[in-house]
Amino acid sequence: MNEPESGGEPVTETAVEHEFDDLAVDSPHVGIVMGSKSDMPVMEKAAKELADRGIRHEMRVMSAHRDPDVVADYAKNAKMRGLKVIIAGAGLAAALPGVVAAHTDLPVIGVPLTSKTSVAGGLDAMLAIAQMPPGVPVACVGVDGAKNAAVLAARIIAA
Description:
Structural class: alpha/beta
Number of domains: 1
Strand order of the largest sheet: 2-1-3-4-5
Number of strands: 5
Order of helices and strands: HEHEHEHEHEH
CATH topology: Rossmann fold
Low-confidence stretches: none
CATH class: Alpha Beta
Helix content: 25-40%
Mean pLDDT: 90
């Protein structure tokens, strides 16, 4: 709670946030995150699909293992910045979608990614994303399914 400047009632942060609800801002509605720059070629398919649909988005590289605090801060502040959905691409252990989902109440769509060290063509990443613990939901599209993740994000926004 913030103290009033000139003797009025204290203003809660929630009240302040709601004053910005009606402002027209060109903030992105979908965040696309990935654990490594090497994931960019696949995840760019999500960006292209969103752009083709006229949906503003942003792309960031952040590792759940190397930079967990960066990931947590991104997820915690995503809603306040105007994001409606987060698409998170990750391979191998595929921790990124779950870590993002643990720090936000926004819908998170996981994209399991293949790599030359993937097990069974990305099955390892798919299982890691699909098997989230109770209370940490993550939607999961097919392996390297970034375009479908963008289509799902568009449908979530439109709902």
